[in-house]
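Practice problem: predict the structure.
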Amino acid sequence: MLRKGQGVVLIGCGILRKEFNLLPKRITDRFRPQFLDSMLHMKPALLEETLQSLMRKKTGDPIVFLYGDCCPGMEALSSEADRSRTKGVNCIEICLGRESYRALRREGTFFLMPEWAKRWKEIFQRELGFESSASTRDFLRSSMKKALYLDTGTEPVPEADLAEFAEYTGLPVTVIKVGMEHLQEALQQALQKLEGIHG
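Answer:
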C-alpha cells in the first residue's frame, strides 16, 4: 500500500538518467532510482526479461517505470498491483509532450537525446547492422527528412558529434532547448496513479 510520502522504486531508461537529476528534489526524493542501459531499447525481449527480473527482486515495493512502449509486455508489467508507468510512447514524447512529439513525427523528424547523440554510431552500425553511410541513408530516406537534438541542459551540445551525424546520415540537424516540465509531469502523474489506487 502506497503511503503518503513513501519512497517508490523508479526503474528507468538510462537515456533519462541525467534529466531525472535536474528535477526538483521534492520529486526526486520520492524515488529510489535504478537506471538501465539505454541500449536495451534495441533488444525489446531482453529489456522485458530484465524488467521482469527486477520486479521479482523488488516484490512488495511500489514501482514506477520511466519508460515508453519499449517492449511488448510493458503495459502488462506496469499494470500489475503497486505498479505505474510514465505516459508516452517513448522517451522523446515523455520529454516533449504528446502534441509536439506527434507534430514533429509527422514532419519526418529523427530525434537525438544527449546520450544517444554520442552513441549514434553504435546504434546504426552495431545494433542495426548498417555498415556504411550509404546503407544508413537508404534506411532513413523512406521516413526521415531531418534530425532534432533535444538540448535538455544536462551537458554542452555535442557540436562535433552532431556534425558527423549529419554528414553520415544526410539529415540536417537542428538543436532545440527542452525543459523538464513534461518529464516532471509524467512522473507526478505516475505517482498519483499509485496513490489513487492505494491511497
